[in-house]
Design goal:
Layout (H helix, E strand, L loop, with lengths): L4 E10 L2 E11 L4 E5 L6 H7 L10 E9 L2 E2 L7 H7 E4 L11 H11 L6 H14 L3 H4 L12 H14 L4 E5 L7 H14 L4 E5 L3 H7 L2 E7 L6 E8 H6 L4 H7 L5
Parallel strand pairs: 2-10, 3-8, 3-9, 6-7, 7-8
Antiparallel strand pairs: 1-2, 1-4, 4-5, 9-10
Magnesium ion binds next to α1.
Length: about 260
């Protein structure tokens, strides 16, 4: 289940534009890692390379290496579609399938995987995933109603349920709480804490309190200027990053002095 991520000297391009340069880091299983940094520094670009999601953009490509439990994610013959199923992603805006019921939304990824499952196994999976996403009690009586009828925070937890239903190795989250109210945000943060037992979790956030609350390790990215590539500036235990970082730019950023 939970897997280790190792990135070696990764550059990420959109056509000729190098958006991210020279990232090397490793992420332990059963941990939460936060990516922070100013807008445009490449956080979304980089996180999308961890499940080959960036390749849906024409011209986007990488140089360098991403290893998942030692296996090269970009080796010839690796199917990016399969990769995206084993390494789930939750986006900034909750994106349940609007015409599908809550139940169908949870099962959507599993159906895509062409797994044939019995009605009762499907019921168990729906219940287990919704419980895992801390949503079960709120929706158990309306599983056949549209997912789009839920509140924003509930929709985001539905998307998390959909992501965990396929039993992924890793869950990537790109600003999963930025469209949510503080209560829903705390609900998601509690959930991340809980999910850490089973998954490797990476979360992009602009919220410094959130990074310090939920993550074990924090990676700070920055750019030298417009048109320059984003770089990983510092990566360490979250407590160190927020209390005693080694680089001045990290200190300035986490204390709100720029960005
Ligand atoms: N689809 C794309 N095509 C071309 N360039 C892109 C694309 N997406 C992002 N970029 C560029 O790559 C750089 C990094 O963008 P990215 O979205 O990764 O930043 P970010 O750190 O996630 O910012 P934010 O905090 O605002 O979400 C920016 O210069 C951006 O304009
Ligand atoms: Mg982004």
């Amino acid at each position: 289940m939970s897997k280790r991520i190792e990135v070696n000297d990764l550059d990420v391009y959109y056509g000729k534009f190098k958006a991210v340069e020279g990232v090397t880091l490793s992420i332990e299983p059963r941990s939460v890692t936060a990516f922070i940094g100013p807008s445009g520094c490449g956080k979304s670009t980089f996180i999308r390379t961890l499940n080959r999601m960036h390749e849906v953009i024409p011209g986007a490509h990488v140089d360098g290496e991403v290893l998942i439990d030692g296996d090269n994610l970009y080796a010839p013959g690796v199917d990016p579609v399969l990769v995206r199923r084993q390494i789930g992603m939750v986006f900034q805006r909750p994106n349940p399938f609007p015409t599908m019921s809550i139940r169908e939304n949870v099962l959507a990824g599993v159906k895509l995987n062409n797994r044939r499952i019995s009605r009762s196994d499907a019921d168990d999976l729906v219940e287990g995933s919704l419980k895992g996403a801390n949503l079960w009690n709120e929706v158990r009586d309306r599983l056949d109603r549209p997912g789009s009828g839920l509140s924003g925070g509930q929709q985001q937890r539905l998307c998390i349920a959909r992501a965990i239903a396929v039993q992924p190795d890793i869950i990537l989250m790109d600003e999963p709480c930025s469209a949510l109210d503080p209560i829903s945000t705390l609900a998601i943060e509690d959930l991340i804490e809980e999910m850490k037992k089973d998954y490797t979790i990476v979360i992009v956030t602009h919220n410094m309190q959130q990074a310090s609350r939920v993550s074990d390790r924090t990676a700070f990215f920055n750019i030298a200027g417009t048109g320059k590539p984003g770089k990983l500036i510092e990566y360490d235990d979250t407590t160190t990053m927020f209390s005693n970082p080694s680089v001045q730019a990290t200190e300035d950023y986490v204390s709100g002095r720029f960005g």
